Amino acid sequence: MRKLSILWNVFVRDFRKQAGRMTLTIIGLVWGTISIMLLLSFGEGMHHQMMINNKGMGENMAIVWGGRTNKSYKGLPSGRRIWFHPGDIEYFGKKLPELRVVTGEYMRWGQKLNYGDTYLNKMINGLYPVYEELRAHFPQEGGRFINDLDMKLKRRVIFLGDKVAEELMPDIKNPVGELVNINGMPFTVIGVQEPKQQMNSYGPQDANKVSIPATTYQLMWNEPYLDNILWAPYDKDIDQMDEFIERFNEVAAAKYKYDPDDKVLGTWNVVEGQKIMNNILIGMKWFLGFVGFMTLAIAGVGVANIMYVSVKERTREIGIKMAMGARRSLVLWQFVCEALFITFTGGAIGILLIYCLTETLKILPIDNDVLNMMGYPTVSFIDGSIIIVILGIIGLLSGYFPARKAASVTPVESLRYE
Amino acid sequence: MIKLQNISKQYITGSVKFDALLEINLEIKERDFCAVVGPSGSGKSTLMNIIGCLDIPTGGEYYLDNKPVSSLSADELADIRNRKIGFVFQAFNLLPYATAEENIEVPLLFAGHSRKKRLERVKYLLEKVGLQDKALNKPTEMSGGEMQRVAIARALANDPPLILADEPTGNLDSKTGESIVRLFHELSAEGRTLLVITHDPNIASQMPRIIHMQDGRIVNSHAHAA
Ligand SMILES: Nc1ncnc2c1ncn2[C@@H]1O[C@H](COP(=O)(O)OP(=O)(O)OP(=O)(O)O)[C@@H](O)[C@H]1O
Ligand SMILES: [Mg+2]
Q: Is the minimum distance from the CB of B43 to ligand 1 under 6 angstroms?
């Protein structure tokens, strides 16, 4: 206890006396910390934003479309068209209970859409309610997506992409309840899609889509074929996508009588893209982290240098103190405390400044294309901790070793030091 | 109080060996007041540094208060330097960034005295060396004599029985030097043991005992008939 109070007294006194040098060192550290944190937080923000953008089309699913057979099979000729029927949704669901969702969609290009005198040419989708969650067709407040009752009653209701709503009725604040015509037939707007970032798509972006219940669609166009089947495994199974794709193909091949080895179906495995994206992002973070680490290392070398120089400068001082009866351990601890204090203060100030900066940036809305891709820089707690630890180690090493060297010789030698 | 038995100090620079001290035998009793004289390079500082536990001899044994110093740990030596020995250097060796009172406070800090006690003691010592009005001056803002008096006050901080001074007047003019010497006489009168290296025969002759050194040996150690 008494030794601690001695250390404290000496530390505080000498620290105050050398505030200038200390401040300079701390500024150097703040600078280094800010550089690395800036890089890492931009990396983190970008990662986050890209993940959001990537999710825009929906996650953990596959999209399957029909094609033509390339081989004759069991007496059937090649070149047959294999198209999915609405009934296949239930069929695949039964045959593949390991899947969480099986659904389908109709797509019809170039339909006439009008609201009053505003006419647009749009693709109409016939969809099922599960689409809301699967393909992220979330409604804005006050609206809803197609539901089971719409399906059952084959209601003439319509769900608009946000860009379509904007184009069609720019002056209407809440389009829900308005009447919109498809090829002259009136539909009631039940919801407008919440704006979202979407990186991938087949057909137009969801913001440009017009959706009606699949049953209404069938009634309108008397359409026997689905354009796509969409299915999704349970989240825990997303590593088995390839297996599921194979099984799906087997079921389809059995039903439509084609050789399962024949590449008839087209499949877009969204998970694969997610994985690639994820790897790119991780790679990018490592790269940024590496650059940041180098920056921090430079700052660290600077600190080590200042510490080292200060010990040289202070070797005489150590000699004086030891001649006056300072114990070796006191001298050592004083230097270690000083180095730790400097590195931690510098690190803490740096992280705090970065935090303030990123919080301030968050107040700005994301509405330009740069931020759309970059996202907001985000400070990660783990990054911060790692940096603090690295700084601590640098501080410890740069404080301890030179001081130990100075304190391990006789006072006379330290006093004589030039 | 101090007993040196065959104390040697050998420096090895490259392949050249140099004996700074050669088999020194010396006894200093409590309350002794000694001058150490001799030509430059004769080993005066080396001897004093060993006596002050600032340096380690390469041969022989040094008994301080009958204890062999070689048996003491580094921490014990530090405590001895802190409590028992006051050292005054020719080059002052004050902390450049600290004021007079802060410099005097240093040994008190290491002794672990309370702030109140430290302040009291510093005040007393400043008065004793006549520097009350320079308490807040840094070394660069003081004359050589003032710096040396700060150094003496610092040496006295923990009231040590033994004062060692290595050419305390070497950097001062003769008038200032005299005032320092007067201070030493006071300290001696207080019952302290003093060992003072000097080149000044005038100063040496004022001291009861003179130790002559030459080429690392004591050639003559005699007491004046008082
Ligand atoms: N670290 C060292 N390495 C080598 N030789 C040294 C070292 N320190 C002192 N010496 C030598 O030891 C001898 C004695 O030195 P010391 O400082 O004791 O002399 P001194 O009597 O105090 O001289 P001065 O009156 O000039 O102060 C000198 O010749 C010096 O060159
Ligand atoms: Mg000397």
A: yes
